[in-house]
Design a protein that fits this description.
Layout: H1 11-22, H2 28-32, H3 35-50, H4 54-65, H5 71-82, H6 88-97, E1 114-117, E2 134-137, H7 139-144, E3 171-178, E4 181-188, H8 196-208, H9 211-237, H10 239-256, H11 261-270, H12 273-276
Antiparallel strand pairs: 1-2, 3-4
Length: 283
């Protein structure tokens, strides 16, 4: 998974882009008058995120924000002025376009298609228009992410703009024979030196987003695309040359993204003796 860059767009930019539409609403002027409050909330969000205390901030804000008198108006501004109307849509599209290689940062292999509110807008309307709270995502990841705020640190969702997953490998695949050919089982195995809470957060992320299942389903198409090439190399040069070739591909993929689905699969293939000694023909 690759995190997108932190947006430079601010909540002030969003409100300015929505001003024309808000001017058509009888409550629009009152909402615009709350800009200083939204800016203050944005700064508190940024400061807490940088300090690794975002969950604590959100837990302290949840009860107050979900009862905010402008909740429905802030939701309407997001749904209509930001998502559906220019120039707000220009900002929405810029946030989508920030995804690296157009891939969802939460799963790393499906294209982005929508924006996820890291802090759910149902509970945090004062963050509904805050770009730091808006993360590009694919449909399955956005829909699979709970709208409920984690009550404990071990289940806190990763935030691409603030959390780090380092450059060390933690995604692994084991390739094996299956009834219908070749299959792979994926697992998240964080480095031993990671803090326990971070390790548990990753395991929860992997499980709650069903990444193992989703990666396994995608394996067959990846293997079908390389089957002919691998059989040809096995036949002409033998299993060790095939291993070396796949290992070189894996190293190249790791350099680009150590925890991509492709990196894990390639290393899994390079270490699977059954595949290298003829199992490839069953894929």
């Amino acid at each position: 998974m690759l995190w997108p860059p932190r947006p430079e767009i601010t909540v002030r930019d969003v409100l300015e882009a929505c001003t024309k539409w808000l001017g058509t609403q009888d409550w629009g002027t009152a909402l615009l008058a709350r800009l200083p409050e939204l800016i203050t909330m944005e700064e508190r969000y940024r400061t807490a995120g940088d300090a690794g205390k975002l969950l604590a901030l959100l837990l302290s804000e949840a009860d107050t924000q979900k009862k905010d008198f402008d909740k429905e108006h802030l939701h309407a501004a997001y749904d209509t002025a930001l998502v559906d109307r220019a120039p707000g849509r220009k900002i929405y599209d810029a946030l989508l376009a920030s995804a690296v290689h157009d891939l969802c940062p939460l799963c790393g292999y499906q294209p982005v298609s929508q924006i996820d509110h890291h802090a759910p807008k149902a509970t945090f309307p004062l963050l509904a228009l805050t770009p730091l709270n808006l993360v590009p995502a694919c449909g399955p990841c956005n829909q699979g992410k709970s709208n409920k705020l984690a009550a404990e640190a071990t289940k806190e969702a990763f935030h691409p703009y603030f959390d780090t997953l380092e450059d060390e490998r933690w995604l692994f695949a084991e390739v094996h024979k299956a009834e219908d050919g070749v299959a792979a089982t994926y697992s998240a195995r964080p480095p031993a030196h990671w803090p326990e809470v971070k390790t548990q957060r990753l395991q929860y992320h992997f499980t709650s987003h069903k990444l193992g299942h989703r990666y396994s389903k995608a394996t067959s198409s990846r293997l079908a695309n390389r089957r002919r090439r691998d059989i040809r190399l096995l036949t002409s040069a033998g299993p060790e040359e095939l291993r070396a070739s796949i290992a070189e591909e894996a190293a190249s993929a790791e350099e680009a993204n150590p925890n991509s689905f492709d990196t894990a699969l390639l290393y899994g293939l390079a270490t699977c003796d059954w595949y290298l000694h003829g199992g490839v023909k069953d894929s």
